Amino acid sequence: MSYGRKPQYDPDSDYEPSSSPLIKDYSLPKRPNYGGKGIVAKVAVNAYPVISYPSSEIYQYDCQIGADGSKRALITKLWNHPKLQEKFGKYKATLIFDGSKLAWSVHPLPFGDQLTMMIDLDEGGREPRPGKAPRDNKHRIVIRKTTSVPLQVLAAYLQGRTDYDVSVLAGINFLDHLVRQTPAKKFVAIKRSFFQRAGSRELEGGVEAWKGIFQSIRPAHGGRLIMNVDVATACFWKEGTLIELATNMVRIPNPEALANEISKQGPKGRIMRDLRRLKKVQFFCTHRLRDQDGSPKRIYTIEGYEEGNARNTKFSLKRRQTDGSETTREISVEDYYRTTYNIRLRYPGLPLIRTRKKGESYPMELCFVQKDQRYPFKLNEKQTADMIRFTVQRPAERQNMIRGNVDQLAWDKDPVLRDYGLQVSKKMIETEARVLPTPQIQYGPGSQDAKFTPRDGRWDLRGKKFASWGPISAANNGGLKAWGVMVFGSPQRIPEAGVKAFFRELIKAITQHGGHVVHKDPPIMYADANKAPGNNLFELYKKSGNKVNMKPQILFIILPAKSTQPYNDIKAYCDIQLGVPSQCMQAKHVEQAKQQYCSNICMKINAKMGGYSCDLVPAFHPMAKGPATMLLGADVSHASPSNPGTSYASMVGSTNELGTRFAAIANTNGTRTELISAKNVFKFVMTLLRAYYQGTKKKPDRIIYFRDGVSEGQYEQVIRVELEAIKQACVQMDPNYFPKFTVVICSKRHHFRFFPVDRAAQDRNANPVPGTLIEKDITSVGEYDFYLNSHSAIQGTSRPVHYQVIWDECKIPVDTLYGLIYNTCYTYIRATCSVSLVPATYYAHVASARARCHENDTEDHLSSFSPDDPAEIQRREQIAQGKVPPLRELHKDMTNKMWYI
Fold first, then answer.
1. Spacing of C-alpha 879 from chain mean position
2. For residues 119 and 653, what is the distance between their CA atoms, to the nearest angstrom?
3. Helix, strand or coil for residue 417?
4. What is the pLDDT of residues 404-428, one digit of tens each?
5. Nearest-5° angle of CA 433, CA 434, CA 439?
6. Facing residues of 211 across strands?
7. Burial group, residue 541, by CB count within 10 angstroms (0-12, 13-18, 19+)
8. Rounded distance, CA 286 to CA 101, Å?
9. pTM
């Protein structure tokens, strides 16, 4: 690609930030104006106006509760200790604590400017055993009055007299904790959500789904504060006996069978690996006198399991005799409980539970799961399906539940809110939304209704020929010539006759949609179960290519079921080693050979090989005229919260002027890091700019960067790190190349929902119709943001996407930007509907998840997850040190292809 001088960039070199950054000053862009296109419609939103908020002085205190780094449970215990609470006098009921380091009071506290004291948590407790030194359980408390919360600055911000700064943030932070104070005492609190077990549903594996209340106070358009209330859901461990939880989790019918399986498999077998998921679960016991005499319940935490069980584990039991002498004898855990507590263990073959205290362990059957413990793992497929059934709600049902949540919060009866002077209306906000015009889309020549306006955001492919088939169209001697099929399964389970029947239907579908298949009799091979997937695929690759004397264009793989393996290995080998697109299909779909399934596969084949299904009629495409525009999208995906795995960053870039095809590049991105490293961004953009130039023979005059998944507090970092690296990449390509940029953050991580009042904005399920846009009342005070519902919800209540412009050099007119985002949602390459998220970001999200197949070790990690394995310990240590290996590079023939579809 020629961008002035030939670039001297080595893609393997480290990116070095410039000593003279291209971005100097930064502030969030203000809204230029409001849009005018579309039909005006009234829509209710689950937000409630704050009528009044504290105007008096609020005193802020810095709190050091215990030593630095103390666990939250210890801090809570110390804060609630009677000796400390009495120091707050009559103001303790209205004192607000954030659970960590800050407290607020509407009155100055009785102790003055500073309180320093010691609390002994063992004071008044049991005496230590004879001969045993008492443990030191004393903790230092320091509470110091530091400042006043500047609520007058928050008021000035709401009125547009000052910009958002740390003083405004301090005011919002205080109000956020203020509204949480009372609900946190009545419910199980997780950040801004509050849960109770009533109405929960049991999922498989010892997990329960709970519904709860989400509540958040925030500044909004119109110079006011609003309270956002919604339905929340979370998963918790089921309380009860630990033995019941364990059998449910590993799906074994009873404790005897569990003990037998563990005995067969040994301490490193699958069952024990699965049971390690219970690490950090808290439990209590009831078999001792101290557990039954009304003393505070002692809570233990599972640290692991002893290798032995109660029957074969022995220890030295010391007993003091009446004459003062001491005797020692070897005794099994089973006999100890029988002789000491008169408890005959029913399941002595089960492993002993090891706690965090050295040398302390308990038989599983004597342990009871402490209530209200959140389940930290990713749900499996069955649990996810059950969770969706539990949470899905039509708009009317959700709206009624939100109203019920407001009644439970009872703001008007909340003594803390009353003392601080915060009042909230119980009437849901109704705002003036607009329904944007539906764009016309077009398919290829010869289509039935080649140009049409979709109804309800959906259409079907009957009679439609794709807009472009790329290299497999009949033009220029193109077509599908070199291809092959591999079946991972036996001929008895997946007969060859059925495979051939399916591909006859698929070839028919390709032809009906405008594609051209030259060779209709591909080689069909069955994978050798004794060979690695890559070796099998290489055999197919050679056979398919040799048959027509050219490199295979695509390989089809039939799998017996949906599974991470061998899928991950297949994708990695084709993407990285062979440089050939692959299309995996489940045997059950091949067996049925339904027309709709074949059409869906056609869209994916076409995308991977260089075509696209449809595009916008030029009159509805904001990029059809004007400067050359490139669309970038980026996302980061993470491992589940319980697994300290690698994060993956991906970026996609449009490769044609219509923005219907996107190349993608991905890499590892540290651990749980939301910002994409400058090094990654630089490399990504260099690659994607080349892809755009190869596809259009132009340099983009403007670049619109859609970024998914960052919080408000990271906006400036996105500009100073990511956009800076993008601009540096442009200069690296050509020292005189300075395109204009607009950066838009896209987020679904919010709790606003639309409930249309006017029929013009409702679909048949009372969800908002595609194109419903809100830019007032719930948006930010003065910044450039809006909420757009661009899709038609299949079930439940649709969730709009929040878009916020955080950089705007392009100065695209407001209606044009709205139209660009909404209209391109109709061109997502593998859908026959308008999607919920601007495609550039949607593709980045898909590519980020798909990139996991390109790890150095593509074996499914979770299937062998064992925190105690040496290899796993080493992996975690490397991750903790930031030593995350990069992904393997894509084959050069895949760089510009949509390999991730």
1. 20
2. 59
3. helix
4. 999 999 999 999 999 999 999 999 9
5. 150
6. 233
7. buried
8. 35
9. 0.91
